[in-house]
């Protein structure tokens, strides 16, 4: 009996520790074990090179439409230019995804997906009730703003003539 009670107490303390970790806002850790902020703050020469390459490619994508047809005959077709621009933008996004900040963004998206699964969405009746409450409050606020507008128009009209 003592082993069972010790086992239950151990499980209870483990569950409390896990629940405490889930409820604390300061130490939110993703499924991979590192926070997105920690990953984003790390950097390397590879990150710098990838950021510069992505910036250069995006600048090049903005110049394709204007300058490429003068140097390359197939670029006179609008669909070829669109394809090149899309390819350059995708290449820049891939470069950015390979940086530490790109990894941090992926961690952030995964954490956001986990949080969205925890959201309790309102039902049809709650949505209908809250919608009417918002409409009534907007109507009341609009009425008071209309009254203030008329008052200030009258007040300014006294001085202007």
UniProtKB/TrEMBL annotation:
InterPro entries the UniProt entry points to: SecE_bac, SecE_sf, Translocase_SecE/Sec61-g
Transmembrane segments: 48-67, 79-99, 130-148
GO annotations of cellular component type: plasma membrane
GO molecular function: protein transmembrane transporter activity
Subunit structure, as described in the record: Component of the Sec protein translocase complex. Heterotrimer consisting of SecY, SecE and SecG subunits. The heterotrimers can form oligomers, although 1 heterotrimer is thought to be able to translocate proteins. Interacts with the ribosome. Interacts with SecDF, and other proteins may be involved. Interacts with SecA.
Function in brief: Essential subunit of the Sec protein translocation channel SecYEG. Clamps together the 2 halves of SecY. May contact the channel plug during translocation.
Cellular compartments annotated: Membrane
Biological process annotations from GO: intracellular protein transmembrane transport; protein secretion; protein targeting; protein transport by the Sec complex
Record-given protein name: Protein translocase subunit SecE
Annotated keywords: Cell membrane, Membrane, Protein transport, Translocation, Transmembrane, Transmembrane helix, Transport
Species whose genome carries this gene: Psychrobacter nivimaris
PROSITE patterns: SECE_SEC61G (PS01067)
Major localisation: membrane
UniProt-listed Gene3D superfamilies: Preprotein translocase secy subunit (1.20.5.1030)
Cross-referenced Pfam families: SecE
Taxonomic lineage of the native organism: Bacteria, Pseudomonadati, Pseudomonadota, Gammaproteobacteria, Moraxellales
Family affiliation: Belongs to the SecE/SEC61-gamma family.
């Amino acid at each position: 009996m003592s082993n069972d009670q010790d086992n239950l107490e151990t499980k209870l303390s483990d569950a409390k520790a896990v629940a405490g970790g889930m409820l604390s806002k300061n130490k939110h850790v993703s499924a991979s074990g590192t926070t997105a902020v920690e990953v984003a703050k790390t950097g390397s020469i590879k990150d710098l090179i990838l950021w510069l390459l992505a910036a250069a490619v995006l600048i090049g994508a903005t110049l394709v439409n204007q300058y490429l047809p003068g140097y390359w005959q197939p670029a006179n077709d609008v669909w070829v230019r669109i394809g090149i621009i899309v390819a350059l933008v995708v290449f820049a996004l891939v470069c950015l995804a390979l940086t530490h900040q790109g990894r941090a963004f992926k961690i952030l998206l995964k954490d956001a997906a986990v949080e969205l699964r925890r959201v309790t969405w309102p039902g049809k009746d709650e949505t209908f009730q809250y919608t009417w409450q918002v409409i009534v409050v907007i109507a009341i606020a609009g009425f008071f703003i209309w009254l203030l507008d008329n008052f200030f128009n009258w007040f300014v009209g006294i001085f202007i003539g």
